[in-house]
Amino acid sequence: MDWFCPRCHTDQISHNMTRTRLLVIFWTLILTMMLYPMMSMLAIQLYTALSGSYVAGHHSLLLINCPTEQTAKDIGRNIMEKRMAACVNILPRTSTMFYWKGEIQDASEILLLVRTRTSMIQRLIDFVKAIHPYQTPEILSFPIQDGSQSYLKWIDDAVPDV
């Protein structure tokens, strides 16, 4: 029976080490998932700084339709005051045709063009939905593939990281 005790002791140590390793792996994965957004932003900034080139999709352009010029100005001003965009253009009245509740509707609307970081898109969408008078506001985003490096840097400077 003497051979049994050392064997049990070794198996217990081995089991404890395996459990510890699994816990370390588990918590490493959890922390990595939690820190991924911040790590990816740092990686993009590091890549851009070292290479001098632009990472496509780091910035986005949003289109937002508004029913009146005053609504467009109010929404644009609120976006700018909350530093969610670097720039908001308010384009003049446009004619719009769309389906609503099974019928074709004609309207005139004001279009906002919003330039921001792509990481800010969801926050912007949620914010605009909360203050927009439409039940289903048109909010579309398009990633910027390339552009003037100094302009894109200016967007980064004007809009803080999320």
UniProtKB/TrEMBL annotation:
One of its GO terms (molecular function) is copper ion binding. It comes from the Eukaryota. InterPro entries: Ion_tolerance_CutA (IPR004323), N-reg_PII-like_a/b (IPR011322), N-reg_PII/ATP_PRibTrfase_C (IPR015867). Keywords: Membrane, Transmembrane, Transmembrane helix. GO terms for biological process: response to metal ion. The chain crosses the membrane at residues 22-44. PANTHER family: CUTA DIVALENT CATION TOLERANCE HOMOLOG-LIKE, DIVALENT CATION TOLERANCE CUTA-RELATED. Belongs to the CutA family. Homotrimer. This is Protein CutA homolog.
